[in-house]
Amino acid sequence: MHSPYLRTAAASVIALVCGAAQAAMLGGELDPLEVRPTLVQPQLSLPTKLTEVHVANPGEFFVPPNVADIPDDKYGDLVRMGRNIFVDTQNYAKRYVGNGLTCQSCHLQEGRKPYALPIWGAFGMYPMFRNKTRSVVTYEQRLQDCFRYSMNGIPPAIDAPEMQALVAYSHWLSRGAPVGVELPGRSLPGLSRSEDPSPQRGEVVYATRCAMCHGPQGLGQKVENGTRYLFPPLWGSDSFNKGAGIFRVRTAAQYIKANMPLGQGFTLSDQESLDVAAYIWIQDRPKDPRVSYILDFLLPRTGAP
Amino acid sequence: MWLRNRVGTLRSWMAIGLSLMLLGTAALVAYIYLGNALHGYAAESAILNDGARIAQSERTGIQACIACHGARGEGNRALGAPRIAGLAAGYIEKQLRDFARDPIKTGVTLDPIARDYSKTPRVQVDLTVYTPGVRRNAAMNAAAAALDNPEIHAVALYFSALPYQVEALPSDPETLERGEDLALRGKPEYGVPACTSCHGPNGRGFGDQFPPLVGQAPEYIIRQLNHWQTGARDNDTMALMRNVSDQLTDGDKINVAAYFANVAVSSQDAEK
């Protein structure tokens, strides 16, 4: 009955249970004076000029024409309408928009800023092959994808007046830019190799560098009695959906590195940009329109645990 | 018959009792709410009265606020005193605290023992490394240092609640056109964002962090941009304005200040 095997088995089980209990007890009680590595990188460079800032070399970028120089003819009218849509999409193209963003929420400063997906860097490159659609797409088709994914809406038809106006604005903005040439400052800058992005570290970066404008919950901040966003939402129902290009962590990190915080492009490191992009990625947002509702329901939810 | 009457009276008594109970509850709720509101109103008006008293009283060697900033906080262009009526209370409060701070004592204090961050809540708001900035101005440094924190709070609330009316300053169209270009579009190739992207769509200011640009004298705006460039003022969150000012030429400053001074504003059409 009392075989040695049974006894050793019972002893080991007891030892295991005791060990687990001890471990749980120790895990609950942390020594407050124990020195531990922290997630926070203290930034001691704010009051002095120790921050490494990307040196702007304005001569290397294409400079689009001045708004005051829009011609006073039919073409100019279409360009002005396109600019209105670009700047105030919520009013001028409301029927195509399903969230709270405008074109210049991403394409900063009316689509002029280098390394913020400038329109003058994109227009001359179309028709272009896209991995996303596995086909050569025209500029109009590309704009439709903007509305479908980044604006979470219904794309305008190729011959819709809004579409024609946006194409006219893009055409006017890239006047003088060479066609089919990858201009400096086009699209987004590259990222160097780094560690895996960590949303835990990203949360700290978010709280210290982003939350002041985009809000602690990432839902943006509204202005004019809550009619429109001054600081666009980064997640939530008023943000871009999961099919948007900037939903990719790498793309978002490239964008953040070059442009965020506003006016302080290239101050976050590659690793910080990736971390905060991962933190934004795990939040909940509208579903990818290419995914059916049933599949979207069955897929694992994103969202901070 | 007796039973029916009995039941009827019972019902009516119950109805009366119920309605009395409801009335009592409503009266209690109304009393609590009204009491709180009245108490809050009384406390607020007391603070505003305090603020008014502080703004009008002078101390040994220090002038009253209204001596330079005007009786209604409208500012004084000749003296270089900005308008402070209608600014966000949090903004005025922060500026006064930064004026009062001793520049020698600013800096980052680190704990001798690293904090155990595994115990802090998940949203680590307190992890912001707080570098209190300073703002150098001979008159204001002395004036703010003479106030304690409740006084700063009261005077900030008082001036933020004051009405204001600012006339537009005329400029030549070329300056205004260039100023508008800078205000609405910034300088994209230099990495300077548009002024209106943070200071509100019409430069009316946003929240406690972004003060209004309209309704201020152009000289004041130019002087602040110069102070950020030289470092005489470094109390901007995340050094946002310092980076912007570093990329501005003297012409840019003149143009953009003229553009924002060209707008007539009053507290009537102010919007949040």
| Uncertain runs of chain A | 16-26, 44-53
The assembly state of the depicted protein chains is heterodimer
Radius of gyration of chain B: 27 Å
N-to-C SSE series of chain B?
HHHHHEHHHHE
**Which class do the helix and strand fractions of chain A yield?**
mainly alpha
CATH class of the largest domain in chain B: Mainly Alpha
As for the number of domains of chain B, it is 2
Beta-strand fraction estimate of chain A: under 5%
CATH topology of one domain in chain A: Cytochrome Bc1 Complex, Chain D, domain 2
Quick structural summary:
The complex is a heterodimer of chains A (305) and B (272). Chain A has 305 residues and is mostly helical.
Keywords:
heterodimer, A: 305 residues, mainly alpha, Cytochrome Bc1 Complex, Chain D, domain 2, 12 helices, 41% helix, 4% strand, B: 272 residues, two-stranded antiparallel sheet, 50% helix
What would you say this structure looks like, in words?
The complex is a heterodimer of chains A (305) and B (272). Chain A is mainly alpha-helical and 305 residues long. Among the domains of chain A are: 58-63 and 70-173, Orthogonal Bundle (Cytochrome Bc1 Complex, Chain D, domain 2); 199-298, Cytochrome Bc1 Complex, Chain D, domain 2. Chain A has twelve helices and four strands. In chain A, strand 3 and strand 4 (228-231) form a beta hairpin. In chain A, helix 9 crosses helix 11 (270-281). Chain A is globular, with a radius of gyration of 25 Å. Residues 16-26 and 44-53 of chain A have low confidence and may be disordered. Chain B is mostly helical and 272 residues long. Chain B folds into two domains: 16-163, Cytochrome c-like domain (Cytochrome Bc1 Complex, Chain D, domain 2); 165-272, Cytochrome c-like domain (Cytochrome Bc1 Complex, Chain D, domain 2). Chain B is 50% helix and 1% strand. Chain B is built from nine helices and two strands, in the order H-H-H-H-H-E-H-H-H-H-E. Chain B has helices at 2-56, 65-69, 89-100, 138-145, 149-160, 173-185, 218-230, 240-246, 250-261, and strands at 165-166, 265-266. In chain B, helix 7 (218-230) crosses helix 8 (240-246). The longest helix of chain B has 55 residues, at 2-56. Chain B starts with a helix and ends in a 6-residue tail after the last strand. At the A-B interface, helix 5 and helix 9 of A face helix 6 and helix 8 of B.
